[in-house]
Specification:
- By secondary structure, the chain is mainly alpha-helical.
- The protein contains 23 helices and no strands.
- The longest helix is centred in the N-terminal third of the chain and has 27 residues, at about 70-95.
């Protein structure tokens, strides 16, 4: 892990004068400067002529970046993001193996560090760190919320609410909480999100009114020329894939809306099914991927939130041979994801990609759709799991409804007690 961090950090520093060159970090600092000067935030233009696209509450949080120099911010944000990658992977492992996280087995830290080192070399994570983005922070807030607090905790949902206040895409996790029987956590998340909106209206009323009166729906503020065009391979959403696959098609917006409704319905249904049966890893990954696919714009670095979960799903928890195969597959994914940067550089606008270029240019969209298809394929196994007659019916049904994330742990304890009684 240390070697991976050292090499990764050196590569970022050597590449800082070329794209990504902490582009988004510079936008954050510039936006904070505009806010501090009292000028209209959403009328300002920054790098490549783009406007500020985040909620005004995020701009208030960026004011702290002005306290140090750009160079100091680059170092601090890079170190923070690397640390957050490790935290995200650790939390993801807790989603997959809650019992293992509680009893502190020695094998888990080694797996966590290995997956964190691999994750650092995936294109979404490298891009997020190179741009100085807040995507890793958002993923950490969501995962810490899901793995640290249950639905009875007074803190449950607050992390997701804060994440949505910084960038609106995590709002889909509030839906996930509600659908998996965690209504109180969902309500707290909504309350925290609304509280940040109120804070924005109090602190910067003009900018908050501008943003929430319709600016947040204007996707043209996010896209622009060069690789930022919505049809370019840098946009790994369903909308971007449709624009590349069928450029100039009539009724594109209608086709996109219908596609999003289908994917959202299926993705959230599968995520809810996984969450209710206690498989939070699948629930989290499916919710994250669904949100990324249906978002109007999903740059490659937005996919940071899905990377640890996808790597974890490749890592079985038992046989060592499978672990080796999974590690090789994960390493291949980490290296293979970088090929998309070649397509972005060759055809920033997504034109004349050819068959191979189109496949590589839609890599994350394809991975997302294949993940959803895989979840569909394992649904029969899900029904078999719920039909397990070795667990008392009252426990299975009650836990399935009220505490799905603790089901597997409690079932294991029940079976252990039965085995002890039989030996006696």
């Amino acid at each position: 892990m240390s070697l991976s961090v050292l090499v990764h950090g050196t590569a970022i520093r050597l590449d800082q004068e070329r794209p990504p060159g902490f582009f988004d970090l510079k936008v954050y600092r510039a936006a904070a400067g505009v806010l501090a000067s009292g000028r209209p935030l959403y009328a300002a233009h920054f790098g490549l002529g783009l406007g500020f696209t985040y909620p005004s509450f995020a701009a208030l949080m960026f004011l702290g970046l002005r306290a140090a120099s750009l160079g100091a911010d680059e170092v601090a944000v890079t170190l923070l993001n690397v640390a957050l990658v490790a935290a995200v992977v650790h939390c993801t492992l807790r989603l997959r193996r809650p019992a293992l996280a509680e009893d502190g087995r020695a094998g888990r830290p080694a797996v966590a560090w290995l997956l964190a080192a691999i994750a650092l070399w995936t294109e979404p994570v490298r891009s997020a760190i190179g741009f100085g983005q807040i995507d890793v922070l958002i993923a950490a807030l969501v995962l810490i919320d899901l793995t640290t607090f249950d639905h009875n905790s007074r803190w449950g949902g607050l992390g997701i609410g804060i994440a949505a206040a910084l960038k609106m895409t995590p709002l889909i996790f509030i839906v996930y909480l509600a659908l998996t029987g965690r209504g109180r956590s969902a309500a707290r998340a909504v309350g925290m999100f609304l509280a940040t909106v109120i804070v924005s209206f109090v602190a910067v009323p003009r900018d908050a009114a501008t943003y929430w009166s319709g600016t947040f729906l204007d996707t043209s503020r996010v896209t622009g020329g060069s690789h930022l065009t919505g049809s370019g391979p840098a946009d790994q959403s369903l909308r971007g894939a449709l624009l590349r696959f069928a450029p100039g098609i009539s009724h594109m917006t209608l086709l996109w809306v219908i596609t999003c409704l289908l994917v959202a319905s299926l993705g959230l249904f599968l995520a809810t099914s996984a969450g209710r049966r206690g498989d939070e890893a699948w629930g989290f990954v499916l919710t994250a991927i669904t949100g990324l696919l249906i978002s109007p714009i999903s740059w490659t670095h937005h996919w940071v939130i899905a990377v640890p979960g996808l790597l974890l799903l490749l890592a079985p928890s038992e046989r060592s041979l499978f672990r080796v195969v999974a590690a090789v597959a994960a390493a291949a994914l980490a290296l293979g994801s970088s090929t998309i940067t070649i397509v972005i550089a060759k055809s920033p606008g997504g034109h004349d990609l050819g068959t191979l270029g189109l496949l590589v240019g839609d890599l994350y969209v394809i991975i997302g759709l294949l993940t959803i298809a895989t979840a569909v394929a394992i649904q029969p196994a899900t029904r078999d799991h719920l039909a397990d007659t070795s667990v008392p019916r009252i426990v299975r049904l009650q836990d399935y409804v009220t505490e799905p994330w603790q089901l597997r742990q409690r079932v294991t304890k029940i079976r252990h007690r039965r085995a002890v009684r039989e030996l006696q």
